Amino acid sequence: MATLGETLVRLLEIYGTEIVFGIPGVHTAELYRGLAGSPIRHVTPRHEQGAGFMADGYARVTGKPGVAMVISGPGLANIATAMMQAKADSIPMLVIAGVNSPGKMDSGNGHLHEMPDQRGFADHVAAFAHTVLTPEELPQVMARAFAVFESARPGPVMIEIPVRLMRADAGHVALPDRKPEARPPAPDPQRLAAVVEACRAATSPVILIGGGARRGAADALALAESLDCPLIGTINARACLPKDHPLAVPLNVGMEGVRDLLEESDLVLAFGTEFGPTDFDIDEAGPVGRPKKLVRVDIDPEQLMRNFQPDIGLVGDAAMALRQIRAALGPEGRKAGGAERAAGAIRAARETLPEDYRAHIALLDAIRDRIPEAAFVGDSTQLVYAGNLGFGIGNRGHWFNSAVGFGTLGYALPAAIGAALGRPGAPVVAIAGDGGLQFTLAELGTVADCGVPVIVVVWNNGGYLEIRYCMESRGIAPEGVSPSPPDFAKVAEAYGIGATVLDGPEGVADAVAEAVFRNAPFVIDVRGV
User: Fold this and answer.
1) Parallel, antiparallel or unpaired: strands 454-460 and 428-433
2) Strands (E), 163-266
3) What would the CATH number be for the domain defined by 189-349?
4) How far is the C-alpha of 314 from the C-alpha of 240, rounded, in Å?
5) Distance from C-alpha of 31 to C-alpha of 140, rounded to nearest angstrom
């Protein structure tokens, strides 16, 4: 007999799952019955929120769904923040949760982990949520989840399994021999032809790519070269832009200079971006104006009509559309002053950067130049805010953080663990403020357990300095913005992790490079910044 729990593990294997992040409990113990003999690795975080962030970081560097397993009630509530961050950034995540058996789900009698309408709660933070009520349902709902991940706008999916059903006989349930194929929709040929004609008619086009177009980055660059036009990436697509290419504009689209470039162009080709305010209306200074002529490509037809309605809208996979438009245009080789326009936008934007942000970006540049293969995983902290404005990582690394979208604190460390597990051997730098790091500081224990060489840079200004500045700028007496940080080096050493303390940012790049050379986890506490 194969139980439903064992069948779930087998299905995860079929779908190519490499790692499950989770904390076992009495309400999920039966899901672990088949895991010990499986090739799937299990990673135990210190908190379910950490499990979700690890799954998120893993998904971002591998392109595969991150998988987490949580208990009913508090487990799902704890991972909800991570699910919402993934939903905001369109990151594929599969959350498998236990739930009380029928009759105990919403009885109000005080059963262990009882949560009123757990699935309804999950519906608000998931692409969809489903309760498995028979063993026969499991293969179908798994296929639905992966169809969302691979052929629709990705996001988190929650599948809950009643505790009693986990032990049920599922030996008779037919499983697929391999993962079913699910392909994203192709753009409409007629609308695609209209886009090609618009490209040929334009004299000052611009290409804008968002997180939904990451897989098409090479075709985006080739298309920009064909049209001789600037190529801009949103924060979630920043790492797709080659650092030194003359057409690349590795700056925030809401900055002066870059926004002027968009507003003055006679055609903006936007692929896989939601035109969200966290990119397009930084500091609430007013949103970027609508382009004169706008083409949008998005896999989500509803998103296609949000914020800016396009003159030509294509529903379909952004990477596929880029490839097809590029092929239809061919190597046009026009001369449209693309490099000059890109350089002018970069020059104008950088002139608006405050001195401290210029120094922060220079520090990030120094780390990148020392370790060009590094992935940078950030929290909401000053160094990351500056990087989101003007740091060009290049297409050999990664740059992602929680300072966009849902904007949670506590993201950097666990997401960096997931990233390190997803790309073994490649360096990963986690950047967190002293306040944000304390949200998930215990995940240093997971770093030690897994032995992943995550380098944690703590931007330690003794509290929530950006919030203090915000309060002071509005004439509010600062309150609640100075939580006392621990001695991070001693905390790291308590987990058996090496650490150092720096008085100021000088020497940070050298310290990171030395830590990467040691190929072991390390914490760098940068004080007085």
Assistant:
1) parallel
2) 205-209, 231-233, 248-249
3) 3.40.50.1220
4) 22
5) 18
Distance in angstroms (rounded) separating the CA atoms of residues 361 and 209: 22
Rama region for 132: left / alpha / beta (φ>0; ψ in -120 to 50; rest): beta
Are 372 and 425 a contacting pair, CB within 8 Å?
A: no
Please state whether the predicted TM-score (pTM) of the whole model is above 0.85: yes
The CATH code for residues 353-527 is 3.40.50.970
Q: What is the DSSP string of 380-444?
A: SSHHHHHHHHH----TTSEEEESSSTT--SS-HHHHHHHHHHHSTTS-EEEEEEHHHHTTSGGGH
Instruction: Please report, in angstroms and rounded to a whole number, the separation of the first and last CA atoms in the chain.
Output: 61
Q: Are 436 and 414 in contact (CB under 8 A)?
A: no
Residue spans of the domains in the chain: they are 4-166, 189-349, 353-527
Strand partners, 41: 19
Q: Tell me phi and psi for residue 106, to 5 degrees.
A: -135, 40
Fold match, 4-166 / 353-527? yes
CATH no. of 4-166 = 3.40.50.970
Per-residue confidence in pLDDT tens, the chain, 529 aa: 799 999 999 999 999 999 999 999 988 899 999 898 899 999 999 999 999 999 999 999 999 999 999 999 999 999 999 999 999 999 999 999 999 866 555 656 666 667 788 999 999 999 999 999 999 999 999 999 999 999 999 999 999 999 999 999 988 998 998 888 888 888 999 999 999 999 999 999 999 999 999 999 999 999 999 999 999 999 999 888 888 899 999 999 989 899 999 999 999 999 999 988 888 877 666 677 888 999 999 999 999 898 889 999 999 999 999 999 999 988 777 788 999 999 999 999 999 999 999 999 999 999 999 999 999 999 999 999 999 999 988 866 789 999 888 889 999 999 999 999 999 989 999 999 999 999 999 999 999 999 999 999 999 998 898 888 889 999 999 999 989 999 999 999 999 999 999 999 999 999 999 999 999 999 999 998 8
- Helices 355-370 & 508-518, crossing angle to 10 degrees? 30
Distances (CA, A) of 395 to 210, 213, 326, 404, 421: 14, 14, 20, 20, 20
Q: At 243, is the secondary structure helix, strand, or coil?
A: coil
What order do you get walking across the sheet with 93-99 strand by strand?
Answer: 41-43, 19-22, 66-70, 93-99, 156-162, 128-131
Closest CA to 59 of 12, 95, 92: 92
